[in-house]
## 1
Amino acid sequence: MAQMTMIQAITNALQTELKNDEDVLVFGEDVGQNGGVFRATEGLQEEFGEERVFDTPLAESGIIGMAVGMSTQGVRPVPEIQFFGFVFEAMDAVSGQAARFRYRSGGRWHAPITIRSPFGGGVHTPELHADSLEGLFAQQPGLKVVIPSGPYDAKGLLIQSIRDNDPVIFLEHMKLYRSFREEVPEEEYTLELGKAETKREGKDITLIAYGAMVHAALKAAEELEEENIQAEVIDLRTIAPIDVDTIIESVKKTSRAVVIQEAQRKAGIAASIVSEIQERAILHLEAPVLRVTAPDTVYPFSEAEEIWLPNHKDIVEKAKESINF
Amino acid sequence: MSFKNPLEKIEDKFEMIQILDENGKIVDEDNVPDLSDDDLVELMKRMVYTRVLDQRSIALNRQGRLGFYAPTAGQEASQLGSHYALEKDDFILPAYRDVPQLIWHGLPLYQAFLFSRGHFHGNQMPDDVNALSPQIIIGAQITQAAGVAVGMKKKGKENVAITYTGDGGASQGDFYEGINFAGAYQAPAIFVVQNNQFAISVPVDKQSAANTISQKAAAAGIPGFLVDGMDVLAVYQVTKEARERAINGDGPTLIETMTYRYGPHTMAGDDPTRYRTDDMDDDWEKKDPIVRFRKYLEEKDLWSEDQENAVVEKAKEEIKAAVKKADKYDKMKVTDLMENMYEELPANLQEQMEEYKEKESK
């Protein structure tokens, strides 16, 4: 076992699959000799050659369109979108094409593509680098959307995503890249897509989060414990599909829930989870299911980031609102 | 310093290639394709058959027996001449008007009709047909063609990816990205732009300040050719040479075929009299690909009225049988659609599957 940051775990996962399967190809802007702007592909071109790890021209629609076409030739493309805000350039290629590839060919073709991309706020990037756009893709039938909350999950989920025969959007929160280390096995392992993890058990309230917000929720749970409130924390790991069973089971136990997302409030993952809970467990509830989200504005310029982004204090507040309802 | 000169020099290099003129006479002896008499006859058969298929498809659409249909008459030389230069294992990425190439690549006719009706089986290419179903988003197939070609190159296949779009498609960002990616990787791709003069109603001179679409290849650093798209020999020959280049590892080619669709954009209410004149239609019909090729073959004693009638009859019979087969095909269900979303059904679709199984059993 080694201590790894999330970026190291991601590099390790890519390396594992490049070794395991010669059809895996890793490509994108600056992923070759430069090793990616965050060094996610550091050393991979050197180890596996330019045929398998390579730079592309600077055009996101071209990158994903190329990945879709490549899929017909038995390769397993792992393209990178350098920052997820740039995915707007490739919306048709992702949602109009890759997501529909299996369906529109009646199963003759499929797109075993894993689109990796950094996203998420709090690291003072320029515009359209940090946006939480996962909801747009979670809504698109045909895609899976995976968001790890740390190094161990990142490796297991990324390997599983690459092996998946359908397109996966794999989102890497920039703030988690180097913020902490964790034990990550050197050998390969996978984590099933569509399965949440209960990070902390509790009987009084369920906090449901994904990505960086898992850590805010865990911190909130610690604070709540000081006031004798036992919070259960669920890390979704995959937001499409959502592990509804794990959520419902927990809510039936705690009777209260707060759903947390870094993304803006309207039409989001959190709203979708609130619906699932009220449809399936309303008679178990002691209080309305509440949300902690960013406000419904575009992502702010970096000076306003800190106040714009939801944090553990917002979660504590909402949890108490639920408890005191 | 002159700003204009470089452009003038570029445009001089994109003169239209023609081998067979409007009167069926060879005008470029040096470039006549090396095709046997049987091949020439086969090309003519395919063009006549496809013209009949177009006429019947329009009639069937008007009777309400077909759905979405984009007429093809006028474009036979562009579509079938380029296709005839391909091998079975080459990969086709068609646009919505390019159903004829799919049919000649092996898509059964009844499936082409199911595609028109909106049944997913129409999109389901048989295992030996290397093609995607017709692309609806203008230009999306162009970056995908680059990808197919890059994939072929990585797998060491001696085949090409060929994709089709129109003059409007050449304005899309994906057009530039696709030809540029293929060029950057020297991938075995052929990009055919069938310039039929109008993108629905917008004339080609409103699409761009460039006088030709073929010259756009220069910006991507790949060869571009402007071809008489009503001349099946010229389209065949240029595509054949582009294919050879690609197979030899010399990269992609852009081919612009100058052509015309006689009919409306699609059968869904487009009225070409709003944007075209009768004179324009007449001028282009004088260039008709079938008329000129018929003259050429008759001169060589390779074609007769009887032969043509036989093809027409055969086409009509096969179309009738295919419509019957399409009629009998099981109606598409929502559960079919669900089964084709993912390799394994996720939990949400499992639930919805149960719901729709019950609905569909009623």
Note: The first helix of chain B runs from residue 5 to 12.
## 2
Amino acid sequence: MKIKVFYRQILATLLTLTGVVACGGNHDLKFKDEGLIYCSEGSPTSFNPQLDTSGTTVDATSHQLYDRLLEFDPQDSKIIPGIAESWRVSENGLHYTFQLRKQVAFHETNYFTPTRHLNADDVIFSINRWRLESHPYHDIDVSGYPYFVSLGLDKLIKDVRRINGYRIVIDLNKPDSSFLANLATDFAIILSKEYAEFLLEKNQPQLLDEKPIGSGPFKYINYRKGRFIRYAKHENYWKHDRAVKQLIYDITPSSSLRLAKLMTGECDVMSLPAHSELDIIRDRNNLVLDEKPGLNVGFWAFNTSKPPFDNPEVRRALAMGIDKTTLLEAVYFGSAVKANGLVPPSSWAFQEDLRDNSYNPVLAKDLLRKNGIEPGFTMNIWAMPVERAYNPNATMMAELIQGYLEQLEINVEVISFEWSLFRRRLDSGAHDSVLIGWSADNGDPDNFYRPVLSCAAIESGTNRARWCNETFDEIIDEALTYSDTDTRAALYQTANAIIADQIPIVPIAHAYRFQAYRQGLSNLEINPFGGIRFGDVENTQ
Amino acid sequence: MSFYFLRRLNLLVFTLFMLAMASFGLAYLFPGDYLTNLTGIHFESEQQRQLYATLYKESDGVFWQFIAYLDLLWQGEWGQSFSSNQPLYQEVTTYLPASIELSAYALFVSLVVGIPLGFLAGLRHNKLADYSILSMSFIGYSIPVFWLALILILILSLQMGWFPISGRISLLYYIPLDTGFILIDIIRSDVSYKWDAFNDALRHLFLPTLSISIVTSTIILRITRRSVIEVMGSEYIKAATARGLNRYQVILRHGIRNTIIPIMPQLALQFTTLLTNAMIVESIFSWPGIGNWLIQAIYQGDYPSIRSGMLAVSSLVVIFTVSIDIVHKIIDPQRLYRQRVKI
């Protein structure tokens, strides 16, 4: 009998212990409701979007930490006031006058306490930083300000003048109809001059980009690379007082893990849901999936500085060797439109009658032989290791292309590295070809042509084809001198013709953009031009 | 006795020395400049490289380089990571406690579950209870950890929504890092949401601990069972029964102590198996431990991190093993080494 008692005791102890560990259940934690967790896809390279064009950096910083002179209205993509309350353009299109908003406070953090509000000096400082090589902060970072340089904005601006504490004038060298749009992009943010001077005095200028001070709805608390970014509400934000108390970026590179976390409630919002997983999100009652045609293009770029890819005929043959329609179905699951040119259908510069190289492996093979490419030729395709809106699965696409090129008796090596390493090696031009793409930062078509294919963009690292064509550059330069869209559209059609003739890149798809979040969040809108915005998001649950 | 300790100590020092040597060798075996692999710095100028070349005694030949390397290791100068540019000593000391913590809780759970079940099976040797526990343990032992972890996630998190699947605590709770052990840090912190955070941390611990401890529990169960059978068949137990003690008294007075003491080192040594399993489970549950960190380092080709991570983990295992051995020798000096390592 005693023995039975003994067993029973053991059993009882076991059960209690299990109970202790398992306790916890699903408590409603009030404290947690005051914050927002965003599962993002990667670590930002910097906390200053002036320094990097990647979507990850922009999503993490631009609209959360900073303000711009102008903003885009996410609804109709019109330019609306930001820090600049009002602006005026002179008749010759060379002088832009901006009247700045007063009472805009910078972040107060444990590493910096501002003593004054945002004024003209901060705006001039922020523009001059990337514009003037002599600026004390210009060479603090070696990135070379890729966005501004690839668009030639540093050459475009002649001077930035201070009229009084809240009014500035920007003088241009020549009229540019996309200038205002460029000031409203995610990259044209306003830094604090006072903070910069404070850091110079402390002899730690590099902290300007690592421990940011801005005037946006959230301020920086801490960051661990590859793990998380922690932001807190900026109490003195000029626009409103309704931002959530905490904003956390939970850095989760795998998209299925992001989705799993969204399902278990560990994230409130996830970035870049995989196209293959969209149905799972649609099926869940507590999740919301928003969808919008994106201003982006995914393409296959040949490294035109490397033989035999410097030969347009070889590039044409390779372009003819792949079937885009299949790629679209297999990689985008139908949530994309086929791209014939650079500009997507939602842009006014879209050319409807643009013809595409049709899929023709026989002709392609012929063309290759004629140009001295023998069977067994080996080339590589670099595939991005991360998902981007314009290409949700570059590795898979590369493998499909590998299959197509095998029919042309070309061997393909698919190459992939960790994202920052990948881009570093890509910058050095080590690739034969790469599957990558471009998401527009503003509504202007120039934002496609110039960063992707202009000569200046080779240096700044966005022209992955390393293709430089002077006629093409002249045409897109000329297009900017007109403000009337018909004339500009005609010029862009000429540019399209050059691209179709030279094929530095093979445009593949314009993908839809998706955003998934849990029910109970309001005011989270897809921003058609790049960065996500959390400033207005409210937790209504 | 002191000769024994000296021998253990000698073994410890020699093994650590070999490990240091291997890690030093890695710097040469990895692609790229060996000095870059050691320091983790991509040199921008020749002067800068020269500075480190003097520090690491590059011109003095491999032997002196190794001595300089040991010296720097001892001072905590482990170089810096390629990817985060943080000092590696600091990185390792932030990530290692998370792994140790997970393994420690898993070991605790395994002991709490494994030993009683082992007793039960051992005492009911060759009866139904024994067979069923044994076959269950076979199943538990045969399940791969990573598969089990995924199944647990699928059922308990994605289907039922009971437990979170990643990290140590919801990121919304800001707990200042102090000891690196999350539960201790929460208790020591003075934040208003202390108990919410503690609760949240426990829920985060549940699945990873469960997935690791299932395998270890079965091992501990089997070790215990074997020892119980051995002890219960021995002469002094028969003598105790003959003296008129009932079975309950026999087990309590003679059985437990004599069963546990000889297998104690074996049980403690499961910690190293746990640590290995924990590394796999860490990457599934995004647990910010050393295993997850090492895997990231491998992905990114971060050679300095791989080198120092390997060194830190293997040193920990070696030091732990030798200390257990010494402690056991103090508690139970009669037993021979041969008997102690037998499973």
Note: The longest strand of chain A covers residues 505-518.
